[in-house]
UniProtKB/TrEMBL annotation:
Converts heme B (protoheme IX) to heme O by substitution of the vinyl group on carbon 2 of heme B porphyrin ring with a hydroxyethyl farnesyl side group. PANTHER family: 4-HYDROXYBENZOATE SOLANESYLTRANSFERASE, PROTOHEME IX FARNESYLTRANSFERASE, MITOCHONDRIAL. It comes from Neotabrizicola shimadae. CDD domains: PT_UbiA_Cox10 (cd13957). The lineage of its organism: Bacteria, Pseudomonadati, Pseudomonadota, Alphaproteobacteria, Rhodobacterales. The chain crosses the membrane at residues 26-45, 51-71, 92-112, 118-135, 147-168, 174-195, 216-237, 243-263, 284-302. One of its GO terms (cellular component) is plasma membrane. Pfam families: UbiA. It comes from the Bacteria. This is Protoheme IX farnesyltransferase. Keywords: Cell membrane, Heme biosynthesis, Membrane, Transferase, Transmembrane, Transmembrane helix.
Amino acid sequence: MTDLSSYEGTGEAQFGDYVALLKPRVMSLVVFTALVGLLVAPVHVHPVVALASILFIALGAGASGALNMWWDADIDQKMRRTRSRPIPAGRVAPGEALGLGLALSGIAVVMLGLAANLLAAGLLAFTIFFYAVVYSMWLKRLTPQNIVIGGAAGAFPPMIGWVCATGSVSVEAVLMFLIIFMWTPPHFWALALFLKGDYHNAGVPMLTVTHGRKATRAHILAYTLALAPVAVGAAFTSIGGPVYLAVALALNGWFILGAVRIWRRDEAMAEADSYAVEKAFFRFSLYYMFLHFVAFLVEAALKTQGLGGW
């Protein structure tokens, strides 16, 4: 991290700039997967408790985003897709982002403990710590495995949602965690392929920088192949069923096909069509994650009607 004195705020920050610090797009995925984890759990949760739990999980996710932006201001300034963020753009001072992140972290963890249970609060606290410290401050600038290990932070929300409902961790919660955990590397490596020099310019040891794009393509295929049995296997647990199985088979078949297409390409082919295949794979990866969790919700809804399950 560079000297933060070079990122003094201008005092012209708008409300939207503080919202941007919370990474609302990332927060929306966190909220959705946490809500699914809570709703598919085999325990009825009072609507007020459920709403409060999701609100505080969202605040925890936002806190992580603010702390990440505070620490990564120097990197963000060097990358095209992040240089307009509030801190590198000079609209918000680093100290403001740090204060916001720490305050929201404390509020989110304490209130989730009061609204749900201490285990859920502990998992939320660990998730914030993992993202802000283990990933942002340590792994991101140290190893090309940064996104592999750091991806755990984004994989915890459905487990936290499940624990809010049940007070314990189960096989189903672990499988939801693993689906996101193993999906994260191919998702972000596809992005790194067509962002080209961004990570190199920022000095981030992304796999494309340290091992090259050919190796990255092979890693995308390997992780996609490893992800498929985990995602499909969830169909045979209490949160799965025939609807989920059909969706998982279709999505994973298409995901593997996309990974194979990426693996077969070289840079000349990618340059010729402006990384069209890589961009399509990245876009589909978003639908891949969303539709798996929608399928979990559908199975839960069917089971309440006595229609789901095996």
